[in-house]
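Lab notebook: predicted structure, single chain.

Context: the supervisor wants predicted structures on file for every construct in the current expression panel, including those that have not yet been purified. This is the next one on the list. No modifications to the sequence; it matches the entry in the shared construct table.
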Amino acid sequence: MESGCLNDSSINDEEWEEKGQQMIYKAHQLKPQDFVIKLVYIRGLPSSVVPGIKELERNVNEALPIRFKGTGELQRYFKEVLSTRI
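Prediction complete. Output recorded below exactly as produced.
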């Protein structure tokens, strides 16, 4: 099986979590101005108190229907996971 493939059964949960954290960090480094990426990055930080988080959550809520168009499972998943009741 090709290395890095998502269905690689030789990778355990901790390794997947580490890969996910690395991907989020890299995405944030590449596009720090992206509201959705920034919110995912911040929510993964140990500290839950982040200045400006409510404004960021409002911006993401407004962007979700545009960013994740359609009714597919992936779009529904991200809308559900990223939406915030403000």
